[in-house]
Structure to design on (289 residues):
């Protein structure tokens, strides 16, 4: 199941999940992380292949992971990138009720992390459209005793979804510090998988986590900024947002869509990162089969 790379008890553990379509985002996100930590960085990419009728989901390629592993080791020999094939796990507990929603089945892969014994007890899950622009050590190294996860309120969903009427507690699942050790004890992800199997939901993985988590810590939006870049932002999450001028509409721009980041978001914060990303992806074309 585990392919390439090696887990370490020291450093920072990061988890990405998805199919081949996340590769561009993972590369860019990893490059941003490298700029803001002096600790060894251990990247885990959980992926799968799946056939749904005529629809075929292809996994993140081994060659991409090998190249990225080689690249991060130039920064620090203790860095690593590891590919996890979760196809068998997913097929054993297929979330049948949510396979045909507008969200890819791979969004639910993170709910299988507790079944991968090689994954460390503390791991930071990031969506592939999250960029880092500051020191995240305080968030990563926080005390997680007795707590299943830590995250940030969902910018829009906090107002509409909550377990208690007068308490905002609906977290966005794009940036989650996971205490996998405690999650394995409480069975949180097992219950989430069962819920995704039996009940169709909007944003199924996020909905299940918010409904079933017993213990979570909430942090400031600086650690998952979903709306607009601020000077204090540590993680910027390029989610779909609403715009009200000149008409009400949604806006979706992903960080690897560099021209749109410049033109539609008017954002040049990451231009130096984008140059490195372009160099890396260009070099990859001569490396990958």
């Amino acid at each position: 199941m585990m392919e390439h790379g090696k887990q370490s008890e020291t450093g920072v553990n990061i988890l990405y999940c998805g199919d081949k379509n996340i590769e561009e985002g993972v590369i860019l996100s990893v490059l941003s992380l490298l700029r803001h930590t002096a600790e060894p960085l251990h990247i885990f990419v959980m992926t799968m292949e799946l056939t749904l009728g005529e629809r075929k989901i292809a996994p993140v390629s081994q060659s991409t992971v090998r190249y990225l592993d080689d690249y991060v080791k130039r920064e620090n020999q203790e860095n690593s990138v590891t590919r996890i094939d979760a196809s068998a796990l997913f097929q054993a507990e297929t979330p049948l009720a949510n396979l045909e929603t507008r969200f890819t089945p791979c969004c639910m892969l993170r709910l299988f992390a507790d079944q991968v014994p090689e994954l460390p007890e503390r791991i930071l899950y990031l969506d592939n459209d999250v960029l880092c622009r500051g020191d995240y050590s305080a968030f990563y190294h926080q005390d997680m005793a007795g707590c299943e996860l830590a995250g940030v309120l969902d910018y829009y969903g906090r107002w509409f979804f909550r377990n208690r009427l007068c308490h905002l507690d609906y977290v966005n699942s794009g940036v989650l510090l996971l205490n996998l050790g405690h999650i394995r004890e409480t069975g949180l992800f097992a219950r989430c998988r069962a819920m995704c199997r039996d009940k169709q939901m909007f944003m199924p993985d996020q909905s299940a986590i918010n409904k079933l988590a017993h213990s979570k810590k909430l942090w400031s939006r600086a650690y998952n900024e979903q709306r607009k870049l601020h000077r204090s932002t540590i993680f910027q999450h390029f989610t779909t947002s609403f715009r009200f001028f000149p008409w009400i509409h949604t806006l979706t721009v992903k960080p690897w869509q560099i021209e749109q980041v410049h033109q539609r978001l008017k954002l040049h914060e990451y231009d130096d990162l984008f140059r490195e990303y372009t160099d890396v992806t260009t070099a990859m074309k001569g490396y990958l089969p």
Summary: The radius of gyration is 18 Å. The first strand starts at residue 2 and ends at 3. The mean pLDDT is 90.
